[in-house]
């Protein structure tokens, strides 16, 4: 087995499992944990929230790190396959911007910054927003993965220089 192939597989699995864990955990908390916790008396609800956030923040921080490492590697490996593919790059750009938004929301919800307390006060709204953004990211990821390289990548294979200068007209 090729060493690079092994790293590619490990990176892809790491990326997908991290997405499953963080998106699944966020969905669980907004549709299962929060409604169940709302039935508790205030002191018990606060204790539960503190305990869950205390544990969840480590998964959020580790997940963001794993996403940045595996996503950066996956992107670096995919670039040669998508030279000249404007749609791929546009969708990946949108995906990366949305991911930064998800990282910010996730970190804000488990953080302690006073400046972001208003987000934590509306935890359910922001967790639902995070889930929606993450679903859009997964949708984009699925589309670009299944779509594969475009015809532009076949015309401009990796390693060949693309001449983007205007044609010289001699007269």
In short:
By secondary structure, the chain is mainly α. It has one domain (3-150). The protein has helices at 3-37, 42-78, 86-110, 117-121, 123-147, 151-155.
When the domains are counted, the total is: 1
Number of strands: 0
Q: Helix tally? A: 6
**Percent range for β-strand residues:** under 5%
Helical content class: over 70%
What is the C-alpha radius of gyration, as a whole number of Å?
21 Å
| Main sheet overview | none
The SSE order reads HHHHHH
The computed structural class is mainly alpha
Distance between the termini: 57 Å
Query: Spans of 5+ residues with little confidence (pLDDT < 50)?
Result: none
Shape estimate: elongated
- Mean pLDDT, to the nearest integer, reads 90
What does this structure look like?
The chain is mostly helical and 171 residues long. The chain has one domain (3-150). It is built from six helices and no strands. It starts with a helix and ends in a 16-residue tail after the last helix. The relative contact order is 0.12.
Secondary-structure topology with pairs:
Blueprint lengths: L2 H35 L4 H37 L7 H25 L6 H5 L1 H25 L3 H5 L16
Helix pairs in contact: 1-2, 1-5, 2-3, 3-5
Provide tags for this entry.
77% helix; mainly alpha; 171 residues
């Amino acid at each position: 087995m090729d060493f690079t192939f092994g790293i590619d597989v490990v990176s892809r699995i790491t990326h997908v499992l991290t997405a499953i864990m963080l998106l699944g955990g966020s969905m669980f908390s907004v549709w299962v944990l929060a409604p169940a916790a709302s039935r508790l008396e205030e002191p018990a609800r606060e204790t539960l929230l503190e305990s869950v956030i205390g544990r969840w923040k480590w998964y959020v921080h580790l997940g963001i790190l794993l996403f940045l490492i595996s996503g950066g590697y996956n992107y670096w490996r995919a670039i040669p396959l998508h030279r000249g593919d404007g749609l791929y790059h546009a969708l990946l750009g949108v995906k990366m911007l949305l991911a930064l938004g998800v990282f910010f929301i996730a970190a804000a919800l488990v953080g302690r910054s006073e400046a972001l307390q208003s987000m934590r006060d509306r935890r359910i709204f922001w967790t639902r927003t995070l889930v929606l953004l993450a679903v859009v990211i997964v949708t984009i990821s699925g589309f670009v993965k299944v779509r594969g390289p475009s015809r532009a990548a076949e015309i401009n294979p990796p390693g060949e220089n693309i001449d983007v200068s205007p044609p010289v007209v001699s007269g």
